[in-house]
Amino acid sequence: MDRNRDNKHVKHPDTLIEKDIKGINRVNNNLALAITTKVGSMWSAYLFGLLSLTSLPAILVTINPSLRNFFPSWIIDTSMITLIAWISQNFLQLVLLPIIMVGQNIIQGRQYAKAQTDHHTLTYLANTQEEQLEKLENIAKELQNLKNSR
Fold this sequence. Notes:
Elements: H1 24-39, H2 42-53, H3 56-63, H4 78-149
């Protein structure tokens, strides 16, 4: 018996995922998934950590002005602090966060489809097992009756 053949009772998760997404919605979903995957990596965490550390010298100079000569002037310049603040507060929070949420919703939908498929498959297997056990019990009873009738 080929156990890898398709079974009418077992569905692949891809059959439950919406596939009729076309045009700009498909592009948006693919872009959101790509950005979510990239931003959800340790490399992005390192990059964002370095971005936040670039404003540290300016804060240190504000606290202790004698450190002004220790750092390059371009890194403690007000325009650099403003740029870093804009990137972190506006771009990352107002633009990247909604994109990540869309990507997570798509991933969650796929996980839900997979869970539904797994549930369906496990229910089918449990029901099949119960039927097989019932048949085996009936066979055992018939064998016992045959043995007793001799």
